[in-house]
């Protein structure tokens, strides 16, 4: 059974992430999507919120489970019995970052292999950073965020601008 972990900040999850998650779900038997802590970023949404948005967004995908983890990615992968990490790459900058992380995770996680999926052209401009700007300036989120995540945010009575 091929098990993959798809980690990220997901601050918040975007339609670009969802495209990658769906593609990963077709390649692997089981995919764990995990909201994690990126030491280099200070998120807009709390870990719990980032996880809730993810969970709502992947609810329709039977072999995908969303979780929240505040430790090392390699430890999470070990706990899940995952042999693979999946990440998306939009450009050379993403690739350089992911290449370094892949080396670290291979060392930390007994031969943990990283599989990089190229973002589709129509999602190249979509990023969590851009979505946070749309939230800040109260612009429509429908083109950039999964509908289930937008609904979940509405249920909180806040759009992240608290
Ligand atoms: O969406 P991002 O910000 O590119 O995701 C980066 C993330 C959260 C996957 C990365 O920072 C991470 O793996 N954090 C968990 C801590 C860890 O394992 N660090 C060592 C690998 S660099």
Descriptive report:
This protein is an alpha/beta fold. It is built from six helices and five strands. Strands 3-2-1-4-5 form a five-stranded parallel β-sheet, with helices on both faces. Helix 2 crosses helix 6. The longest helix has 17 residues. The model has no long low-confidence stretch (mean pLDDT about 95). 4'-phosphopantetheine binds next to strand 1 and helix 4.
Feature tags:
162 residues, alpha/beta, Rossmann fold, five-stranded parallel sheet, 5 strands, 18% strand, binds 4'-phosphopantetheine
Uncertain ranges: none
pLDDT average, as an integer? 95
Name of the top-level CATH class: Alpha Beta
Task: Supply the CATH architecture.
Answer: 3-Layer(aba) Sandwich
Report the structural category.
Answer: alpha/beta
What form results from the Cα inertia axes? Answer: globular
Secondary-structure element order, N to C = EHEHEHEHEHH
Question: What is the terminal separation in angstroms?
Answer: 43 Å
Secondary structure: number of strands: 5
The overall number of domains is 1
Count of helical segments? 6
Tell me the fraction of residues in β-strands, as a range: 15-25%
Lateral arrangement of strands in the main beta sheet:
3-2-1-4-5
CATH topology: Rossmann fold
Bound molecules: 4'-phosphopantetheine
Main beta sheet:
5 strands, parallel
The CATH superfamily appears as: HUPs
């Amino acid at each position: 059974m091929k098990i993959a972990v798809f980690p990220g900040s997901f601050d918040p999850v975007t339609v670009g992430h969802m495209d990658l998650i769906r593609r990963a779900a077709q390649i692997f038997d089981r995919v764990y999507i995990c909201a994690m802590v990126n030491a280099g970023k200070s998120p807009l949404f709390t870990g719990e919120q980032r996880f809730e948005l993810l969970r709502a967004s992947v609810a329709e995908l039977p072999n995908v489970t969303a979780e929240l983890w505040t430790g090392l990615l390699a430890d999470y992968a070990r706990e899940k019995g995952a042999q693979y990490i999946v990440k998306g790459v939009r450009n050379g900058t993403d690739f350089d970052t992911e290449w370094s992380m892949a080396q670290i995770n291979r060392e930390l996680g007994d031969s943990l292999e990283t599989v990089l999926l190229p973002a589709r052209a129509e999602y190249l401009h979509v990023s969590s950073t851009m979505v946070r700007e749309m939230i800040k300036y109260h612009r429509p989120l429908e083109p950039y965020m999964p509908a289930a995540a937008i609904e979940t945010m509405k249920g909180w009575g806040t759009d992240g601008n608290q």
